[in-house]
Design goal:
0% strand; mainly alpha; 3 helices; single chain
Length: 93
C-alpha cells in the first residue's frame, strides 16, 4: 500500500510540476504576443506618418521650389530654348 501511495504521490508531484511549467510557458507566450502586437501598432503608426511625409514632400510646388533653390533651375522660356534641326544635324555627320 505504501508503494502505491508513493507512486501516486510521485505522479501527483510530476503532474503539478508539468502544470506549472505549461502555465508559465503560456504566460510567456502571451506576453511575447502582446509585445509583438504593440510593436506592430507602433510600426503601422510610423509607416502612416512616413507615407504622409513622403506625400507632403512630393508636391509639385515643393519639388519646383527645391529645383529653383538647390539646383538653380528655372522654367524654360523661348528666350533660352535652343531648337535643333534634324536635317542639319544629319548633314554634319
Amino acid at each position: 500500500m505504501t508503494r502505491l501511495n508513493l507512486l501516486l504521490l510521485a505522479a501527483l508531484v510530476g503532474s503539478c510540476v508539468y502544470l506549472v511549467q505549461v502555465a508559465y510557458e503560456g504566460r510567456k507566450l502571451y506576453s511575447a504576443l502582446d509585445r509583438a502586437r504593440t510593436e506592430q501598432a507602433l510600426l503601422e503608426r510610423d509607416f502612416k506618418r512616413l507615407q504622409a511625409e513622403r506625400e507632403a514632400q512630393a508636391t509639385s510646388s515643393r519639388v519646383e521650389k527645391t529645383a529653383r533653390e538647390k539646383l538653380a533651375m528655372h522654367t524654360a522660356t523661348p528666350a533660352v530654348t535652343f531648337y535643333v534641326d534634324a536635317a542639319a544635324s544629319e548633314a554634319q555627320r
